[in-house]
Design a protein that fits this description.
- The chain is built from 3 helices and 19 strands.
- With 262 residues, the protein is mainly beta.
- It folds into 2 domains: 65 residues, no CATH class; 197 residues, no CATH class.
- Strand 9, helix 3 and strand 10 form a beta-alpha-beta unit.
- The longest helix is centred in the N-terminal third of the chain and has 15 residues.
């Protein structure tokens, strides 16, 4: 199912922004802020109020947003707009070349918040991050948890590994409202058991050592941090680390010291 909370009304109707939960069907027509096509308001007793495209279109906002994703955006949006040091809070802010899930000016810093659960392509996250930098906007990528990060081992997706490298060894997971949980992924050593075998009358042996896993990591959570109080803008130069490459970018990163080194 495709969900989006935010739509625009044509300028000649006198109202530019229209959240689904405070709109009514007589307010139509509604326009998608990304592709500028008309969308339809859906309101019911079970599903969250949302807009949907009339037909399948090549639009980022119509690409299969889940209800969990929309509820998470709304929760963060509601938390931010209550704060005195936050201005210009907007859902699905369209910059022409990028659409931020949530945009806000936090203590004077323009911030684009991108909330993800799907397996986002690394090429796309790289391109969006570079574009926000070009626009002079700090970007914060947040993952919506889909599993237990308290396990002894975890296999990060490619885009999570990219974020881990970009944010100097941490990935941010949403914990409710404006509260985020940073997680560091430490290397995980796997035991290769010792074995022996006989070939042509000779006994051979192998194993009996640990090797670093390519797939698995050990999650090490830091202290939960508030988006409005624990983050700052940080310029990062282009980098390359192994198979991970990143452009010059402006990040919104927490001030917490490296807890995994303590």
């Amino acid at each position: 199912m495709t969900y989006t909370d935010h739509a625009h009304r044509p300028a000649h109707l006198g109202q530019r922004q229209s959240p689904a939960r405070s709109s009514t069907k007589p307010d139509a027509p509604f326009i998608c802020p990304a592709c500028r096509r008309e969308v339809v308001l859906h309101q019911g007793l079970i599903r969250i109020h949302h807009f949907a495209h009339k037909a399948r279109v090549a639009c980022r906002l119509g690409a299969g947003e889940t209800e969990d994703h929309l509820l998470t955006k709304l929760s963060l949006f509601d938390a931010l707009r209550k704060e005195s040091n936050v201005q210009d809070v907007e859902l699905e802010k369209n910059f022409g070349t990028a659409v931020a899930d949530v945009f806000a000016v936090i203590s004077g810093v323009p911030v684009a918040v991108e909330m993800q659960r799907s397996a986002l392509a690394v090429s796309e996250i790289t391109a969006r991050t570079a574009e926000y930098h070009r626009l002079g906007i700090a970007v914060l990528w947040i993952d919506i948890p889909n599993g237990d990060l308290g396990l002894s081992r975890y296999s990060p997706a490619a885009w999570e590994r990219w974020c881990h490298a970009a944010y100097f060894g941490r990935v941010y997971y949403w914990a409710g409202g404006q509260t985020l949980r940073p997680v560091h992924y430490a290397p995980l050593a796997l035991r290769v058991e010792e074995t022996s075998w006989r070939t042509n009358g000779q006994i051979h042996s192998g194993g009996g050592y640990y090797r670093r896993s390519r797939r698995w990591r050990t999650p090490r959570p830091g202290q939960p941090v508030l988006l409005l109080k624990g983050f700052q803008r940080s310029l990062r130069h282009a980098w390359t680390g192994g198979s991970v490459h990143g452009p010059e970018c402006t990040l919104f990163i927490d001030r917490q010291p490296n807890w995994w080194d303590q």
